[in-house]
Structures are given as structure tokens and as C-alpha cells.
């Protein structure tokens, strides 16, 4: 009996050693276009006796190269781990699904049984997801335990397609005798939002075997969080839950609190930057107080939690003997509140777990002097006004009027849509004007007077400029033409839209060629009034309504870099204040910023354009 036991142990150790064998070309930056380009990879696969993993991260794989690699995989039925993160850089949107289908074909012929699939950091878009769907629906994925799809740009439609594919995989595998037993699901930064989250919640509820779920930065509000929470109840083995940087709010926290009693194996909980506020913290603290003794890390930083909420969370950690990390930084405890929290953790022997509290949010300034109540909430029970569905309600005015006034003064030189600056001047001459004459007086009439070859004229004006002069000359021209997109003259508006599109395309083409992408992104932010220029004399003398209209069109085009879209999204994701009333104004589905320094002042007649642009950036699937 003892001999059999030893034999079994040795067999397991041998299997463990074998499963660590494979081929890795991680970070080699290989451009694998043809089968010939992939010879080195193919040779390595053929020479590996026990190929349990293939790591192609940081290379770029074309369809023909994928065909050759897939052929090599056909002889490796033992293959288990497809580590294919970031392997489609620079590929056309039509190439990705074809390459995935080729790779999948090799796995099917090999009879492989995958346990891990990592396709993170590949810009699928809706077309690329089709290749992923075919892969997930195939037999090799019936044994999948780990699925990593971080930063794939899935969007709502992609999230739904993914959910359907996983349900199909579950049903097919169940019919074959053993249902899909997914343990790890990672899909951060995918713009899944409520609908995508709800679709995936059905998968989680059906599978019931999850041990780790990470879905940070997906624009999920309490509706989606509630659906996920209900699904988590059916996954009692869940150890790691990361929903960082979604708009959970107290309503979502309530749903999670209801699910927590079912998750007694939970080790890590990350709800940082989720707008929980004090009420959400109190709900979570109550749910965590009695049990959850396996917890090792709790992240609840940057949630606008005030002193009472922080104290109750600290009390909830008393019986968590395995706790090593308690992150409550960036909340609004006040000096006395921080001292109370630290005292509670010291009494319970948990002070060593507490992270830094030295960087509270801007809104906490002078909170203790304003309230005179040890940094506690304004009400005894800690209740607060909770956002309605999708955060539709208007955010409360900032409690510190002084902070808001200072923010207004910082942008005193920016005059948006000032009629004295953007007034149209009628041109009576019928003669053609030059680009320089148009720039001196950029009216719709003068723009039309440039003639039908206006795009060629402008490009000729800038093509001979030096690298240092290029942006300085082109950006004002682009803005002045874009501004006409907001005029009342339809012919001029349409011509300006076409011309601005051509100039944006030329701008980003130049940026890539000159390796000046970050400089161009920064210049664009300055000329759109999103950040201040280092040149204090610079004034925005163009109609930003029209500029936003032109930008809305440009961001939808294939030439517009994803990095530029992400940069714009960051700077649009801020609280907006009407310059005249100094009241916050928020559109439907618009997440407010949390910092006074990020307040953006504008007139309401420009606000609609900003909302549309933000919606386009968040809801359109880009490559």
C-alpha cells in the first residue's frame, strides 16, 4: 500500500515537471508574416518532445505564419497552455480572426485539451471576436480552466458574443461527459458596461466553478454589478474578486454585500475607485464582520468614504487573522478619522496591514474644520444621497466653494464660443483667397473662397515645413477649419468636415512617421482647450463647438490612433461646470470626476458635443 502511495506521488511530481516544458518566444518582437518567417518558431515546436505551452507574447503573427505554426501543433496532443498575449500588433482587423482560426485548426487536429488561454492585449474589435468565438466553441476549449482576455476592446457586443460562445462551450462539453469547469476569468479594460456584464453573469451562474474573477475598468454600473453579484452566489469557491474602477456605488455595494455570505473562501477583494461612498462601505463592513476569515487583501481606496465608514471597515477586520493588506488610501476620513481608524486597527493587531493614508482626495481639504465632528459624516447614520440608475442624477456641488473658485480662475483665459472672437465676417469679394488670408479671417465664406482644391492647397502649405514648425502651423489651421463645422452654412460645414478629416489623417500619418505621437496628442488637447498651454499668451480664438463636431467624425475613422482615443477619453472623463452658473452638469451615462482640479468649465451649448464624443469613444468598437 505504501509502495503504491509513493508511486502515485512520484507520478504526480513527474507530470508536474513535464507540464513546465514548452516553447517561449516572449518579447522577441518577431514579425511573423509568412511560414518562412516562422521557421524558428516551427522548428522549436517540432523539437519540443512535451509541448505543454507556447508563449508568443510580444510578437506579431500573420495568417500565413499562423498556418505554419498550426501545422506544427498538430503533432502535440499534450498541448495545454496557449499564451498568446499581444501577438497581433499592427495586424489588419481582418487578419486576426483568420489567424485564430488557423491556430484553432491545428489544436483540433492535435486533439489538444487546453487548460489556459491568454489572448490579452490583442485589439480584437467586433471582427476579431469572431475568431475568438470559433476558438472557444471548439473541442480543445472544453477543458479550459483559465481564460485571460484583458484589454481586448470587446465592447458590449463583443462581451455578448463572448458570453454566448462560453455558454455553447459549456453545453457542448457537458454533452460530451464533462462540463466546462472554468476557474479563472480575467477581462479588464474591455468597455463591457452593464449589458456585457449581464451577459457574462449568465455564464458565471451556469458554470459555478470560478475561483478568480477580474473585470476592472469596464464602465459597469450597479445594474451590471447586481447581475454579477447574483452569479457570484453560485460560485462558492471564489477566492479573488477584482471589480476595481467600475461605478459600483452604494446600490452595487448592497448587491455585493448580499452575495458575500456565499463566498467564504474569498481571499482578495478589490473594489478600489468604485464610488462606494460611506453607505457602500457600511454595507460591505456589515457583510464582512462575522466571517470571511480567509481574507488576505482588501482594496477599498479612493471611494469617497468618510470617517465612520472607514472605522466600521476597520472593525470588520478584527477576526481576519490572515489579512496582510488593507488599502483605504485616498478616502475622506479627516485627520481625526484617520487616527480613530489606526487606533482600532492597533487594538485588533491589524495596524501592520494598513496601507498609506497620506494621499486623501482633493475633496477632503479642510473637511475637519468644516464639519467640526472628527471628520465624520454630516449625518449620524452615515447615509448619503445615492446616485440613481446609471448615475443619472446631477453630482452635488463641491463642498469647498474656494476650491471651485480657484479652478475657475485657472482657466480665466479660455473663452469658449465668445461671439466677439468667432464672429463671421461676410466676404463680398468673389476672388479666390490664399490659405494665409483665410487664417487671418477664418470665416465660412473665406473657406469656400479657397476653392475646390482647398485640401491640396493646405497640404502644400505645410509639406515643406520643418519638424519643429509643422505642428505650430498645422494645428491652428486644423482648428480654424474644424470650427466652421459649427457654422450655419451647410455647404461650408460639409466642406470643412471633409477637409478636417483629411488634415487629421495627414496629422497622424506625420506623427507616426516622425515618432511624435505623444507630442501630437498633447498639442491636440491644448488646441481643444482640454489642457492649458505652456505658452501663457495662447488664446483659443476658434469655435470649439465646430472643433468637437469635426473630432467626433475623426475618432470614428481607422486612421485615428487608439492611443489618441484613450488620451481623449481620460480628459473628457471629468466633472463639467457651467461657466455662467458654476453648477455641475452631467449627461446620461457620464461618470463624474472625483477631483476639483479636473473640473472642466464650458458653456452648455458646447456640452452636447462633449457628451456625444464621450459616447462615441466609450461605445464604438475600434481596432
UniProtKB/TrEMBL annotation:
Pfam families: LRR_6, RanGAP1_C. Keywords: GTPase activation, Leucine-rich repeat, Repeat. The keyword Nucleus does not apply. Residues 344-403 are annotated as: Disordered. Residues 350-359 have a biased composition (Polar residues). GO terms for molecular function: GTPase activator activity; small GTPase binding. CDD domains: LRR_RI. It comes from the Eukaryota. Residues 378-390 have a biased composition (Acidic residues). SMART domains: LRR_RI. GO terms for biological process: nucleocytoplasmic transport; signal transduction. Residues 419-581 form the Ran-GTPase activating protein 1 C-terminal domain. Residues 362-377, 391-403 have a biased composition (Basic and acidic residues). This is Ran-GTPase activating protein 1 C-terminal domain-containing protein. The lineage of its organism: Eukaryota, Metazoa, Ecdysozoa, Arthropoda, Hexapoda.
Amino acid at each position: 500500500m505504501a509502495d503504491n502511495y509513493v508511486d502515485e506521488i512520484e507520478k504526480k511530481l513527474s507530470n508536474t515537471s513535464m507540464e513546465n516544458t514548452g516553447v517561449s518566444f516572449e518579447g522577441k518582437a518577431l514579425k511573423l508574416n509568412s511560414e518562412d518567417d516562422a521557421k524558428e518558431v516551427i522548428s522549436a515546436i517540432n523539437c519540443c518532445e512535451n509541448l505543454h505551452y507556447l508563449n508568443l507574447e510580444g510578437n506579431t503573427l500573420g495568417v500565413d505564419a499562423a498556418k505554419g505554426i498550426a501545422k506544427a501543433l498538430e503533432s502535440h496532443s499534450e498541448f495545454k497552455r496557449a499564451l498568446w498575449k499581444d501577438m497581433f500588433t499592427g495586424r489588419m482587423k481582418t487578419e486576426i480572426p483568420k489567424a485564430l482560426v488557423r491556430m484553432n485548426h491545428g489544436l483540433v487536429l492535435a486533439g489538444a485539451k487546453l487548460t489556459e488561454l491568454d489572448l490579452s492585449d490583442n485589439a480584437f474589435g467586433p471582427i476579431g471576436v469572431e475568431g475568438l468565438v470559433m476558438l472557444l466553441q471548439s473541442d480543445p476549449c472544453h477543458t479550459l480552466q483559465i481564460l485571460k482576455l484583458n484589454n481586448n476592446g470587446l465592447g458590449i457586443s463583443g462581451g455578448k458574443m463572448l458570453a454566448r460562445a462560453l455558454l455553447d462551450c459549456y453545453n457542448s462539453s457537458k454533452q460530451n461527459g464533462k462540463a466546462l469547469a472554468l476557474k479563472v476569468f480575467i477581462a479588464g479594460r474591455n468597455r463591457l458596461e452593464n449589458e456585457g456584464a449581464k451577459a457574462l453573469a449568465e455564464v458565471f451562474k451556469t458554470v459555478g466553478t470560478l475561483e478568480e474573477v477580474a473585470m476592472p475598468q469596464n464602465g459597469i454600473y450597479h445594474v451590471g454589478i447586481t447581475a454579477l453579484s447574483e452569479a457570484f452566489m453560485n460560485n462558492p469557491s471564489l477566492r479573488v474578486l477584482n471589480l476595481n474602477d467600475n461605478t459600483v456605488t452604494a446600490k452595487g455595494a448592497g448587491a455585493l454585500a448580499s452575495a458575500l455570505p456565499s463566498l467564504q473562501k474569498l481571499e482578495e477583494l478589490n473594489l478600489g475607485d468604485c464610488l462606494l461612498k460611506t453607505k457602500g462601505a457600511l454595507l460591505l463592513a456589515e457583510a464582512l464582520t462575522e466571517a470571511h476569515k480567509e481574507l488576505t487583501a482588501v482594496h477599498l481606496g479612493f471611494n469617497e468614504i468618510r470617517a465612520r465608514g472607514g472605522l466600521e471597515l476597520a472593525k470588520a477586520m478584527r477576526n481576519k487573522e490572515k489579512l496582510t493588506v488593507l488599502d483605504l488610501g485616498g478616502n475622506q476620513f479627516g485627520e481625526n478619522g484617520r487616527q480613530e481608524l489606526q487606533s482600532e486597527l492597533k487594538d485588533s493587531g491589524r495596524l501592520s496591514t494598513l496601507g498609506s493614508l497620506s494621499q486623501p482626495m482633493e475633496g477632503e481639504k479642510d473637511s475637519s474644520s468644516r464639519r467640526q465632528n472628527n471628520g465624520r459624516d454630516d449625518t449620524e447614520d452615515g447615509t448619503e444621497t445615492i446616485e440613481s440608475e446609471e448615475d443619472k442624477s446631477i453630482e452635488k456641488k463641491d463642498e469647498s466653494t474656494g476650491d471651485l473658485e480657484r479652478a475657475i480662475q485657472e482657466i480665466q483665459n479660455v473663452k469658449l464660443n465668445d461671439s466677439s472672437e468667432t464672429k463671421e465676417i461676410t466676404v463680398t469679394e468673389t476672388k479666390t483667397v490664399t490659405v494665409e488670408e483665410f487664417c487671418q479671417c477664418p470665416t465660412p465664406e473665406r473657406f469656400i473662397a479657397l476653392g475646390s482644391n482647398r485640401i491640396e492647397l493646405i497640404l502644400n502649405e505645410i509639406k515643406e515645413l520643418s519638424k519643429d514648425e509643422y505642428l505650430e502651423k498645422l494645428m491652428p489651421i486644423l482648428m480654424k477649419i474644424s470650427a466652421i463645422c459649427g457654422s450655419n452654412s451647410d455647404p461650408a460645414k460639409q466642406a470643412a468636415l471633409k477637409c478636417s478629416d483629411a488634415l487629421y489623417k495627414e496629422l497622424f500619418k506625420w506623427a507616426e512617421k516622425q515618432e511624435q505621437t505623444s507630442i501630437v496628442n498633447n498639442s491636440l488637447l491644448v488646441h481643444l482647450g482640454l489642457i492649458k498651454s505652456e505658452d501663457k499668451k495662447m488664446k483659443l480664438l476658434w469655435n470649439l463647438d465646430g472643433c468637437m463636431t469635426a473630432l467626433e467624425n475623426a475618432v470614428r475613422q481607422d486612421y485615428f490612433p487608439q492611443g489618441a482615443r484613450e488620451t481623449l477619453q481620460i480628459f473628457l472623463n471629468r466633472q463639467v461646470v457651467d461657466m455662467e452658473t458654476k453648477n455641475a452638469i452631467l449627461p446620461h451615462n457620464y461618470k463624474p470626476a472625483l477631483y476639483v482640479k479636473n473640473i472642466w468649465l464650458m458653456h452648455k451649448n458646447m456640452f452636447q458635443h462633449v457628451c456625444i464624443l464621450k459616447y462615441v469613444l466609450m461605445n464604438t468598437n475600434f481596432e
